Amino acid sequence: MPTSGYIQVNAYTSNARIPLRDVAITVTASDGTAIAMRVTDRSGKIEPIMIPVPGIEASQSPGSGIIPFTRVNLYARLSGYVQIENEDLQVFADTVTD
What we know:
Elements: E1 3-7, E2 12-13, E3 18-19, E4 24-29, E5 34-39, E6 49-53, E7 69-77, E8 84-92, E9 96-97
Parallel strand pairs: 1-9
Antiparallel strand pairs: 1-6, 2-3, 4-5, 4-7, 7-8
């Protein structure tokens, strides 16, 4: 049974951990189809993005042939900073990936 997992983003500057506002966050499916676009708030955060994923039972049945997670790509852009690209992030049922 399909269910949901979530992606949470916290955007900060290097080791200083100063929050970055107005970072454009894009989450895409593995094929490049856009799933969600958000902009970070003054705390450097976005609301969690819900991702459809296989049910938790898929991870409890290793021989089922069902991959127990959904792969997505995440891109973060802000003028004056290097673009961040995270590909093949794994999102599991009832879990927040950050």
